[in-house]
Design brief:
mainly alpha; about 60% helix; 5 helices
Length: about 120
Amino acid sequence: MSYHVDRFYAAVSVLAGHGHIKQRLINAYEDNLVAICEDELPISVKQSFSDLKHLMNRVTPLNGEGTICASVRKMSVEEAADCAVSVVTLYHEISRVDAGREAVLPLDSKDRSSVPPFLVKSN
């Protein structure tokens, strides 16, 4: 999961940079989020990320322009800002979930040798 946290952090960093919001949104999404599959994300953010992905890919490109560029070009400044807020909100939620993860112990009885003896329940 920390890979996704890192990707969203990088996207938020781009969004916080200089330049027009539409160009920052394009760069943040294309460089950091485009390769993320919503099925890899926590359940609590799957739908929000899917919605963002839909917004970023909803326009058919023209003249060699990419889908993301075309979609953001058709957005108003307010819509682009809302998408940027969605990225920040997703980053916050993914970070919160990642920080709250507990260590997962192996369930396979063959792997009990890697579990400290005081944690193994005797049968």
